[in-house]
Please model this.
Amino acid sequence: MSTAIIMEPDIQQKLAILGSEAAEEVTDVPATQSIQQGIQHATGFVYNAKQAGGGTTRLFKVLQTNACRYRCHYCFTSCAIQRKRTTFKPDELATTFVSLTEQKRVDGLFLSSGIVPDANTTMEKMLGTVERLRLKEGYTGYIHLKLIPGAAFEYIERAVQLADRVSLNLEAPNQARLNDLAPDKEFASTMWGRLAWAAALIKRARQEGRPAARSLTTQFVVGAVGESDRELLETVQRAQRELGLWRAYFSAFHPIARSPFAEQPAADPTRALRLYQSDFMLRDYGFRYDELPFDAQGLLPRDKTPKQAWAERHLHAPVELNCATRQQLLRIPGIGPKSADKIIAARRAAKLRDLAQLRALGVTTSWAAPYVLLDGRRAAVQLGLW
Ligand code: SF4
Model:
């Protein structure tokens, strides 16, 4: 009778497995969209995240383990899919990260994990990694730590103390949709409730002047189980209102081979983009939720931006850019917060008279032209001059 020898993967092998699987979970936004900030793209285990103030930071995006007891139908790591499983010990992962920072390959850590055998044990390992970095290695840089659904209060509390950002992916807008998407997960208590704990802990730390995570985020899978854009954005709005959610990310569904959803078509990435644009309209452009251009099924248009769709229905008279308020400027397609501020600054020095001036201020003139007047003249007429 022969005895099989099972070799434990070495650190490089673990890195290859746990880095590449973490990179599978990337938010879907075309790189050409410049209006978004904080949108990310992955290359291997290095995750290029745009910072709110401009510039890019390279995050080491990795799983503590790719073993998981859950069956989420959109996830590569689901226990329903046969694959090689491995786990980083906290010290191994911490030293791997330190070595990557010393080689100047990454600037920060984004740590997520499969859940095994339970939420608390998983968070203990993740916190072990982060504690080693913060307390033994003296690492003071950026850490984004995923919260594990169902983890006990003390683990959420420790995560908020140690990380710069904490997040928990709600994945679906409500329990009914979650039942189809991730049948083992529970929405109200183990997911929303943990986000609420984290939000309260962040708020209290701020009031008391103690260091704590600066932001709370979540993510949704889009287009797998028939949820509408209205349902998703309603939940985002509620999370912003009740939890002070900093940002929601949207990931268009991609079928995973050998999963129950393997035969389902991939969702259109434009749908995720329209959700981001609507979220920006609500947070940064002063639109109200009831102004979003949903159709009867609660979906946003795909062939134009939500602001273009709103403008077609509501902007019946062109707006004179030389005297419009900032709020009026932000309602014009092609003008964002930065270009609105630049318009206001530029017109103090000289009247705005042509589209070339607007283009230089960052306006998407092909979108804005039908809706604006420049010194009393319709810009759409001037378009023919260029
Ligand atoms: S709990 Fe997380 S890691 Fe596990 S299957 Fe679900 S999404 Fe994937």
